[in-house]
Amino acid sequence: MKGKEATMRIHEEVRKMPVSPIRTWTSRLHDLSPRAELTLGEPPQITDSRIIEAAKTALDQGLTHYPPAAGLQSLRQELAKRERQLRGWTIHPHQVLVTDGAQEALAVCCLALLNPGDEVLISDPGYPGTRSVISLASAVPVACAADEHLQLDITRMERLISVRTRAIIVASPNNPTGQVLSAEALNQLGMLAENYDLALIVDAAYEQLSWQPLNFKVLRPYRHRVIFIGSFSKTYAMTGWRLGWISAPRRWEAALLKTHQALVSGVAGFVQQAACTALTLPAESWRQEVKEQCEAAWQRLNAIGLSCPCPGGGFYCFPAIPANAESSEHFALQLAERAGVAVLPGTLFGQRGEKHVRLSVGVRRETLQWALDQLEMFVKAGG
Ligand SMILES: Cc1ncc(COP(=O)(O)O)c(C=O)c1O
């Protein structure tokens, strides 16, 4: 009886929520001691020493107190400048909120803008952290299955709109497919948001790692309802620093700030100070490296017969597994066990991910090469 009462006290959405499926699968596969792990979505290198030095200096200078809730003014100014350049419209520093990674940014947007029962359209396959925060806000994620080329299907998305729909959340480049939204797709999304009075939240965590044009400027006519989410994690190899941001229309500024304050109070000042240094560093060489790795992996996967859409950014490939494979989970387990290569089952990213796996290819060149050789032998031997 006591156990039953304890269960009842847990928030219903939290009770239903799985422990991060990516982390769970990563450690499950890790336990099989594979020689190559292409699982977690993070750069293998450690953060640039200039960023680390900037954090140390900030600590020595005493940046150890509570930071301003919305972020250091200097960082918000730099981010606003960058946002203006990339978006092509005016964004003031007070429209920028510094967050604990893009994950907190997503949570802040959902908790601030959604009411229980509201529906949010998301892409399937897509980043699973988005679903979790929608559910945490007691709202309902409505998955829109990608088309046969794993592109966002906007016609299908429009059919999924109901009287309860409040927002659309999309990532470009997308995790796990690496697909970049075209100017036409973005314009259609903007029009959907306009016609149905929705917020359009664009998760641009991989923005600086895109080699295809991102076309975000086409959203200018809809800017009063568009929110951008950014992250330092992937661009600057700063996953462990937990740093991201939101840039939002003025009418949502106060609600977002109150939510962020209620959740985390603010982001460590010395981390933000180091982020100012990060923004001065070029991302080209890392972008070039992931582009080469992605393209090499994409070509090789298709040559092996695992059909894979060409990624336009980020560091993932999302190939189909052989038609006779039992399921993506079974395939991933067998591949780790028998060929020593760990990849994630596509189903972690939504139902549309079935019969696919995600390879995180931002690893060392030799590791990727070896993993693809093993994958080829595994597939040729009948999986
Ligand atoms: C599309 C997308 N958005 C957000 C995040 C969260 O990133 P952060 O480390 O900034 O919280 C990730 C992490 O993998 C992601 O892939």
Question: How many strands in all?
Answer: 12
The overall pLDDT, averaged over residues, is: 96
Number of folding domains?
2
CATH superfamily of the largest domain: Type I PLP-dependent aspartate aminotransferase-like (Major domain)
Uncertain runs are none
Strand order of the largest sheet: 2-8-7-6-5-3-4
Cα-atom Rg, whole angstroms? 21 Å
The CATH topology name of the largest domain reads Aspartate Aminotransferase, domain 2
Q: Mind summarizing the main beta sheet?
A: 7 strands, mixed
What is the share of helical residues?
Answer: 40-55%
Give the N-to-C terminal Cα separation: 48 Å
Shape: globular
Classify the beta-strand content into a percent band.
Answer: 5-15%
Per CATH, the architecture of the largest domain is 3-Layer(aba) Sandwich
Oligomer: single chain
Helix and strand content put the structural class at: alpha/beta
SSE series: HHHEHHEHEHEHEHEEEHHHEHEEEH
CATH classification class of the largest domain: Alpha Beta
**Bound small molecules, which ones?**
pyridoxal-5'-phosphate
Number of helical segments with 4 or more residues? 14
Cofactor: pyridoxal 5'-phosphate
Keywords: Aminotransferase, Pyridoxal phosphate, Transferase
EC number: 2.6.1.-
GO molecular function: pyridoxal phosphate binding; transaminase activity
